[in-house]
Structures are given as structure tokens and as C-alpha cells.
Amino acid sequence: MAGAKAWFCVAEDHYRLGEIHLDHGRLVEAEKSFKEARRVLGLMHGEDHPFVATTCNGLGMVYKDMGRYGDALSMYNEALAIRRRRLGERHSDVATTLCNIGGVYYVQGNSGKALEYCMQALEIETEAKGRESEGVAISLCNIGGLYSHLGEFDKGLEMLEEALEILGVDHPKVTVLLYNIGLSREALGDEEGALESFREAQRIYGMHGISDNDAKRADTCVRRLEGGSL
Known about the structure:
By secondary structure, the chain is mainly α. It has a domain at 168-230. 83% of the residues lie in helices and 0% in strands. The protein contains 11 helices and no strands. The chain is elongated and about 65 Å long. The mean pLDDT is 90.
């Protein structure tokens, strides 16, 4: 038992290293670390262990970032199958994996298929953790963005505003959410409401000293709408 626990810790260490590599964009190194984590864990616990699903999920993220979408879907589907067997159909980790699969379909240009998976994820996440949970809010963000991408801005805005209500203005993801709400309001002809959302995003970016591309996009939208209102 002690030996198995030690090997599990080794697998965890490889996985954490893979996460660090992934966060820094070192995709080849991340792939190697996640694969090694899976190999070590598989030797001691077999291929059906829940943490094997976690390593598959990590590989899915790597392959998605590499543009290897077929490989990403293969890894995510393997993670999904393991999690369904070991954790049950209605577990929050199943919802996370469904959402990840939806993300791959989205970048492939299949927003309809992405929406299908994200709606499944929302249903499971709501059942598992309640409507006020962060996981539900993230699912709502994803679905809202997909509806907007499909041109259904009213449905998208409804989802995004519910997500904002759950997360509150202090959550790290709220700036991007406010920006997307602004875009949806503008698309629906509500320029005043859009400007309000963009300004709030701008305020939070400034408060935290953030000047990345998302912050610059919010600044651009504020200037554009302010210029149009003069």
C-alpha cells in the first residue's frame, strides 16, 4: 500500500509539472509530463483510475492548444468515459469534461455541437452543485458566448447576465464577462447599456493594473461608443 501511495505521488508530481508547463505555453514539455503521469499511474492503478482521466484531460488541453483537435477530442472522450464509469453520469467532473469537448467543437467552427455539449454540462453542474455555483456560472458564460456567436444575442445576454449575478463583480473572470455582455447589448441596439458594461470592465481592469489585450479591447469599445454618442 505504501509503495502504491508513493507512486501515486510521483504521478501527481508529473501532472503538476505538466500544468506549470501548460500555463507557460511549453506544450511539448507539458505533453511529456502528462504522459508520464499517466504511464506511472497506469502501472500501479490501471487505466480506469479517476486520476488517469485527469491526465487525459491535461493532454486534451495540450492538444487543443497545439491545434491537434482530433487528438484533443480523443483524450477528452477517454476522460469522459472513465469519469462516467467511476464517478457516475451526474458528477461535476463529467460536466467539466463535456464543457471541454464543447470547447474543441467551438474552435473547429461547430458552434451548434459545442452548444449541445455545454448545455449538457450546465444541466449536470446545476444538479451536482446548485444553480448558484461557480461551475454553473462558467457554463452559463460559455453558453452565452455560443448563443451570441450563433446570432441569438437575446438568449446569450440572458445567460451572461445570470452568470454575472452568480459571480459578482469581484470574481477574476468578471471583466471578460462584462466585455461580452457589452458586445451582446450593443448587438441588440442598447448602446447605453453596452457602454455601461464596457466602462465597468475598464474600471476593474484599471483597479487591478491589468493592461492585456482584453483590457485594450474594452478601452477601444468605450472610445468607440463615446465617440458615437457625441
